[in-house]
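Title: Prediction job returns without error message
Component: structure pipeline
Severity: low
Priority: P3
Assignee: unassigned

Description:
Job completed but the reporter wants confirmation the result is attached to the right record. Sequence as submitted:
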Amino acid sequence: MNLDAFLKTVRASKQFNYFYHFTDKKNLDSIRARGLLSASELRRLGLIKKVVTGGDAVSLATDIQKGNDQYVCLCFTKNHPMCFVASQRGVDPIEPTWLSINPDVIKLPDVMVTDAPSNQNGVVLQEPSQALDTMHLDAIYQWIDWSLNPDARGHRILAEKYEILVPKKVVVDYIVDGL
């Protein structure tokens, strides 16, 4: 898919005009100062224990094993199921807040996209121009009458799990709302 055409669709949407990142409210000062950092960058800078992560210990270990800790994870909607899981976990739940990210971030070098949570088994990281052609983007960017299209609800549930992975850092200039 042509990324410029995709970005035009995002900007024209009446539902979601940005990409999104959920974080704990306690992390906002750090994000204002440094931008959104991947877990590997947080570790490299000695900051990983000073932030509240969305993932638990198992999730963080899986990310390291798969190399996904090198990316900042963004969502296409403000309804990624991992946010709910992180806010409900028994030990150390997050107090979530959503940041809106300029969708132009998808054009940065080495950005990848997944069609399911990136640390899930069997998920393949793909270049955006290839991945977007196979995704149910209509479920995100177009209004759909659920009663007329019963498959659309399932497509939306899948689409809410899609992720955009930005290497190392999302600079503050890309964060348009939520700080």
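Comment from assignee: result matches the submitted record. The first strand starts at residue 19 and ends at 24.
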